[in-house]
Amino acid sequence: MHTLKESIKSRRSYYSISKKSTLSDKNLIDLVETALQHTPSAFNMQSARIVLLLGKNHDLFWDNTLKILQQIVPAEKFSDTENRISGFSAGYGTILFFDDIKTIQTYAQHFSLYKESFPIWAQQANGMLQSNIWMLLEDAGFGASLQHYNPLIDESVHKIWDIPESWQLIAQMPFGKPTALPEDKDFAPLENRIKVFGK
Q: Which helix (H) or strand (E) holds 80?
């Protein structure tokens, strides 16, 4: 078990993952539900939605994504795409992140003074949710990464899993037990990124 600071520091993008899990499915679902319930949102809007794909549904998601990409990626570049998708498919599961547009619009109408801000606030809340789940997965011994194949896959995802029309796909997070460490990461100098004004 890491401290929160350690989890923030150790969270990385893992592209070498396996179909092994470090948790029971019950505990995995509890982890995701905990993050979904307790991640803050503006006006307590709670517009974020999640679909957790495990087993055959996880495999189906990446098989479907690959078929869609095959239609648009040039043939000479497709092998790289295929290898990348195979890496995601090799994982244990995938988390799909959505925003419920209907909820966002309802709050924008109810609080019209801030109507232009609610879509932005919803994205911010979804980003916090993604980060919270990513760190919880890291803490549990999983490796994960964040992908964005939307909007190319949106229509098929809604059809295959009968997703409500108002749910807008934001991101995808494949995860599994790591089989290799991520590459070293470079950091820009902090003195260029933060200003501190004391008392």
A: helix 78-89
Q: Helix (H, G, I), strand (E, B), or coil: what is residue 100?
A: strand
Q: What is the DSSP letter of 172?
A: E
Tell me which DSSP letter residue 44 carries.
G
CB atoms within 10 A of CB 9: 11
Rounded to whole angstroms, the Cα distance separating 23 from 35 reads: 16
Note the pLDDT tens digit of each residue in 108-120: 999 999 999 999 9
Q: Please name which of 70, 108, 99, 101 lies closest in space to residue 171, comparing C-alpha atoms.
A: 99
β 93-100/17-18 pair status: unpaired
66's tokens: 């690959």
User: The tokens 């095959």 sit on which residue?
Assistant: 70
What is the model's pTM? 0.96
Contacts of 186-195 with CB under 8 Å at 24 or more apart are none
Which tens digits make up the pLDDT trace of 34-54?
Answer: 999 999 999 999 999 999 999
